[in-house]
Amino acid sequence: QKEVEQNSGPLSVPEGAIASLNCTYSDRGSQSFFWYRQYSGKSPELIMSIYSNGDKEDGRFTAQLNKASQYVSLLIRDSQPSDSATYLCAVNRRHDMRFGAGTRLTVKP
Amino acid sequence: DGGITQSPKYLFRKEGQNVTLSCEQNLNHDAMYWYRQDPGQGLRLIYYSQIVNDFQKGDIAEGYSVSREKKESFPLTVTSAQKNPTAFYLCASSGGTENQPQHFGDGTRLSIL
What we know:
The complex is a heterodimer. Chain A is mainly β. In chain A, the strands form two sheets. In chain A, strands 2, 4, 5, 9, 10 and 11 form a six-stranded mixed β-sheet that branches. Chain A is globular and about 40 Å long. In chain B, strands 2, 4, 5, 6, 9, 10 and 11 form a seven-stranded mixed β-sheet that branches. Chain B has a four-stranded antiparallel β-sheet with strand order 1-3-8-7, with no helix packed on it. Chain B is built from no helices and eleven strands. Chain B is mostly beta strands. Helices cover 0% and strands 50% of the residues of chain B. Chains A and B meet through strand 5, strand 9 and strand 10 of A and strand 4, strand 5 and strand 10 of B.
C-alpha cells in the first residue's frame, strides 16, 4: 500500500463546475495535511493546509479532512481553465513529508 | 523578496561526471529538503536536513550527496554513481516543526548528454 494515494486522473470538468480531488493516507499518526498545485514544468505551490477534522475554506478552495477514515479531499468551486494543473496531496509525518503521485485536472472552457 | 533560489535551471551531465545543484533560501528556515520528480510521478525524497551540519538520507539517496555548512544553503551533488540522473530536482524548505508546510524553489532540470 502506498503511503499517500491519489486518483491519477485525468479529471476533466467544465468551466464553472466543482472539481473534487481525493487522497488517502496510511500513517494514522499523521498530523498535518497539504494540497499543492503544480503547473506543467513548474514547481509545486502550496494552496491549502489542514490540521483538524472538518472543512477549511479559502476562496474557491475547500479542504476536507477525516482522520478516522484517513481521507483528505480538495474541492474547487467555480473551476476556471487556469485551475488546470496537477494537484499533489502531501502528508506530514514527523520530519518528512510524503507526497501522492498527483491528480491531473483539466478545466474545459 | 524571501524565497528559495535553485540554480542552474537546466543542467547537462556527461558520463562519469559529478554535478552540483545549488539551493539557497533566505526564509530563515531550519529544515531543507531535496526531491526528485520523474515524468508523471510524485516527489521522492533524496536527502533532508533539520539543522546545520546534520542531514539524513531519504528514500533514494544512493548516488547523491549533500552538505549543510550554512543554514541558508543545501547543495546537492549528483555523482557518477547515479546511473539514471535525468529528472526534475526540487529543493524545499520549512520552519522545521511537523505542522509547517514545505515551500519549493523553481527546480533544476538535469539531463544526460
